[in-house]
Amino acid sequence: MKSKAELIVLNHTKFGENSIVLHTLSSEYGRRGFLVKVSPKTAMALFLPLNILEAEVTENPRSNLWFARNFVSVAPLNGIRSNIHKNTMTLFMSEVLYRVIKDQTNEDGLADWLKGQILTLDALQSDFANFHLLFLLGLCSALGFNPDTSSLAPFADKHLKSMEALLKLPFTEALLYPLSGIDRNAIADCILRYMEFHTESAVNIRSLAVLREIYG
Fold first, then answer.
1. pLDDT tens digits, the chain, 216 residues: what are they?
2. CA-CA distance, 74 to 16, in Å (whole number)?
3. CA distance 177 to 72
4. Please, are residues 121 and 114 in contact by the beta-carbon 8 Å criterion?
5. Coil, helix or strand at residue 37
6. Alpha-helix residue ranges (DSSP H) falling in 101-130
C-alpha cells in the first residue's frame, strides 16, 4: 500500500551498500524507520536532522521496515542551515527525540508540535540561545510529563529559580531570560535527568558537548 506522508528527519543510519534507514517522526506513523535507496547522486542534504520532507511511503506487511522514496522538501529551513548555532541546536534536538521516543510509538500531536518548533527556530532572527531549553521543557509537556516547579526540583540543583522562570514566562520573555552559557548547559543537564527519570532509560546525548562548546 502506497501513500504520501510528511516526515520529520531524526537521524539516518547506513543499511547495506546502497541504502539507509531514515529515522523519522510523523503524524501518520509516529516514530518509524524507513528503508531508503541511495546512490552517489543522492542529495544527502535532504536528510539533515529535523528536515521536513514529503515522501511516498510503501508499507510492508511482512516487516516493520517500510520503504520511502520521492522526497520533496516541505520547508527549506534556510534560517537554520545558514546559522551554525541553530544548526547545532537541531543536532541536539533531533538526538534527544531519537533517544527519548521509542520506535513505532505515536504520541498524539507530537509531530505537529515538533514542526511548529522547527519553523519557529528557523524564523527567529536573534536571541535564541535559550531556545533548546524551552524545547526540552515543551517536549516534556508534549510527552505528558507535565513539568512544574515541584516535579523539577529534585533535578534542578541550584537552577530551580531559572527553570521556573523558563516554565512560566511568555515565550518571547523566556527567550530573553538572562543566563550564562554555563547555566544553560547545567539546566539542559537537569532537564535531561528529569526526562531520564520519566522514561526510565539513559538519555546519553552526545551532541550536548557541541552545544557546550558553542554556548560555554
1. 778 999 999 999 999 889 999 999 999 999 999 999 998 888 899 999 999 999 999 988 888 789 999 999 999 999 999 999 999 999 999 999 999 998 888 888 999 999 999 999 999 999 999 999 999 999 999 999 989 999 999 999 999 999 999 999 999 999 999 999 999 999 999 999 999 999 887 777 776 676 666 655
2. 28
3. 37
4. no
5. strand
6. 110-123
What is the bridge-based pairing of β-strands 52-58 and 2-15?
Answer: antiparallel
Question: In a 3-state reduction of DSSP, which class is residue 29?
Answer: coil
Q: Domain 2-73, what fold?
A: OB fold (Dihydrolipoamide Acetyltransferase, E2P) (2.40.50)
Residue 152: HSE in the Cβ half-sphere, 13 Å Cα cutoff: 25
pTM: 0.93
Q: Tell me if 60 sits within 8 A of 104, measured CB to CB.
A: no
Whether the CB-CB separation of 18 and 37 falls below 8 Å is answered with yes
**C-alpha span between 31 and 28 (Å, rounded):** 9
Task: Please state the domain extents for the chain.
Answer: 2-73, 78-215
